[in-house]
Design goal:
The chain is mainly beta. It is built from 1 helix and 4 strands, in the order ββββα. Helices cover 5% and strands 54% of the residues. A 4-stranded antiparallel beta sheet has the order 1-2-3-4, with no helix packed on it.
Amino acid sequence: MRAVLARVAPGRRTWNTTCEDYSQTTRCRTDVWASVVIRQGDDYVVKQGRAFNNPTYLPYMSREQWKSNPLGYTNRSTAHSAVSG
C-alpha cells in the first residue's frame, strides 16, 4: 500500500482512499462511510460503515501502454447482459 488519504467533505461525508502499485501505474480504491442495505435471512437491514465507492488509476501510463492491459480495451465489452432482439 502506497498511500492512505482520509477526507471529510462539507456536510460531513467521509471517505478513505488507499493506493498501491499496479502494473506500471498506481491503483487507488475509495471507500465512503455509508448506509448500506443488506439482506439477512428474509429481512433487509441497514448497516453503517465503509462501503466500496470506486477504483481509479493514476495517470502514470500512456494510452499506448494501456492498450495491452485488459482494463484499457475500448473495443469490446465483457458484460453478459446484452439483450438480443
